[in-house]
Specification:
By secondary structure, the protein is α/β, with parallel strands linked by helices. The protein has one domain: 2,3-Dihydroxybiphenyl 1,2-Dioxygenase, domain 1 (Roll), CATH 3.10.180. The chain has a four-stranded mixed sheet with strand order 1-4-3-2, covered by helices on one side. A four-stranded mixed sheet has the order 5-8-7-6, with helices on one face. The longest helix is centred in the middle third of the chain and has 13 residues. It comes from Streptomyces bauhiniae. InterPro entries: Glyas_Bleomycin-R_OHBP_Dase, Glyas_Fos-R_dOase_dom, VOC_core.
Length: 139
C-alpha cells in the first residue's frame, strides 16, 4: 500500500467580530486576507501566512451549523467567552520578537515565552474571539 499525499488546507476558528478578527490576524500576526465572504449579515474570512498559499484559517461565525441546538449554541458562546472552545498552534523562528510585537499590539497575553517540560519553548495569547493560540519557537 502506498502512502496518501494529504495536507492540511484549511482549519476553522470561530469569530464573533469580523473586523476585530481581521485586525488581529492580518494586522497583528501579519497574515494575508485571502477571502472575505458575506451572507445574511455574517462574514467568513480566510487568512493565512504569507508565502504559504495552501495553508488557510477560515474565521467563521460560531455555531452556524443548522444541526446545532439552541442549548449547544449557548454552550459554544459560553466556552468562547471563557477561551476554552477552540485553539490553534502556530510556530515562529523568533518567539521573543513575535511576543514583543503581540504585546505592543495589545494582544490578550495568557502566557509569556517559557521553556516547557516537553521540550518546546512557547507562549500563549487569545484572539479577539477568545480562541487560544499557542506560538511555539520553531528552530
Amino acid at each position: 500500500m502506498t502512502a496518501m499525499d494529504i495536507s492540511i488546507h484549511a482549519s476553522f476558528l470561530p469569530q464573533d467580530d469580523p473586523e476585530a478578527a481581521l485586525a488581529f490576524y492580518r494586522d497583528t500576526l501579519g497574515f494575508e486576507l485571502r477571502n472575505d465572504v458575506g451572507h445574511n449579515n455574517l462574514r467568513w474570512l480566510t487568512v493565512g501566512p504569507k508565502g504559504q498559499p495552501d495553508t488557510n484559517i477560515v474565521l467563521s461565525p460560531p455555531a452556524m451549523d443548522p444541526g446545532i441546538t439552541d442549548d449547544e449554541r449557548r454552550v459554544i458562546t459560553e466556552m468562547m467567552a471563557k477561551g476554552t472552545y477552540a485553539s490553534l498552534v502556530l510556530a515562529t523562528p523568533d518567539l521573543d520578537g513575535t511576543f514583543d510585537r503581540l504585546v505592543a499590539a495589545g494582544a490578550d497575553i495568557v502566557q509569556e515565552p517559557a521553556d516547557q517540560p516537553y521540550g518546546l519553548r512557547d507562549c500563549a495569547v487569545r484572539d479577539p474571539a477568545g480562541n487560544m493560540l499557542r506560538i511555539q519557537e520553531h528552530r
